[in-house]
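Data deposition worksheet. Section B asks for the primary sequence of the deposited chain exactly as it was used as input, without tags or linkers unless they were present during the calculation. Section C holds the resulting structure in token form. Section D is free text for depositor observations; keep each observation to a single sentence. Incomplete worksheets are returned to the depositor.
Section A, Depositor: J.P.
Section B:
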Amino acid sequence: MPLGLYLSVPFCKAKCSFCNFASGVGNDAAVERYVTQLVEEIDAARRDADRIGASLPHLVDTVYFGGGTPSLLQPEQLRAIFAALRRNFELLPHAEITLEAAPGQIDDALLGAALEEGINRISLGVQSFVDAEAQAVGRSHTGDECLQEFHRLHRAGVANVGADLIAGLPLQTMESWMQTLRMVGEAELEHLSVYLFEIDEDSRLGAEVLRGGERFHATRVASEDLASAMYERACKELPLLGFSQYEISNFAREGFRSAHNRKYWTRAPYFGFGLDAHSMLLRAEGDGALRFANAEELASYGMKTRTLPQTVEQDEAFEEAVFLGLRMLEGIEIAALEERFGAVRVKALRQNVRELVGTELMWEDAGRWGLTLRGRLVSNDVFGRILEPVAA
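Section C:
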């Protein structure tokens, strides 16, 4: 089974108030030092996998540069990373290679190097096409600049251009959300991700909301009900613009679904390099998989602070297969679940599934289980309820 690779580049020009990722602002020296460490980690990958008893495939069919803002790398730094990847892996000719970027923050030199190295998919962190909303959370672009950037990338030869949006940001109203969705129709994108704003202490905005403060426009964050209504509206409007929803947060035109993200949802092997990067590889001998992750703090990265590998036991693997599979709109095939994990485990879920179908949070059809639109809005609650017998 070909491998997926994730490369974390945790540097940005500025930290957005809603961001809860392990990223921050770094100077040129810090970025250069980090790239050197990243290359060293890639070169040590096969040795590290052997040491922990993991099987590391040689063939790679997806590569994902996430962050942070990886488009801020210098061309020579991007080339150095690709050289390390090609020393240690074989990138298949049809591989999907993604670069995350911020609108206006991918210059011509870096774009040229990216295309030369085989990057064929670029995802832009738009979040909102409404200028006041974008500026309220620290974004520096305007809606018109985003449209210009999409057209520029297409003209340069990028066949797959996508964007991220967030529902529930400060200042957002249903009217302004509809303005953002209308601009999606003008953007000629191939892929779109729609996320609900998460109120948690790991972002400055989320922490301010939790403490009842006023900084970062915390008092103007959209209510949970409004954010949910925005998500529902997107699920109804985006198909009219040619985007088919295929996962809780993801929409795509025909032929442009994310192959890399599908690896996470189907529990295929992937290896993450860089700050806070996570990995899951199959065991070299016997059944099961191994999970491990890198340090979350930049000061610790490169100091052999990767977590000890944890074996994913059958019960845990079964739970993952259920809740990750239900994230996809196609749902999960019941017979395949029984074949992989046994009929006894699947039987334990049936009563809860029937109850969830009765409350219109799930559907059952043609031997498959899936989430309804209403179920997708409360997916974490649904996952908890359906897996309750397994944990008992």
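Section D:
The chain has 15 helices and 17 strands.
The longest helix spans residues 28-43.
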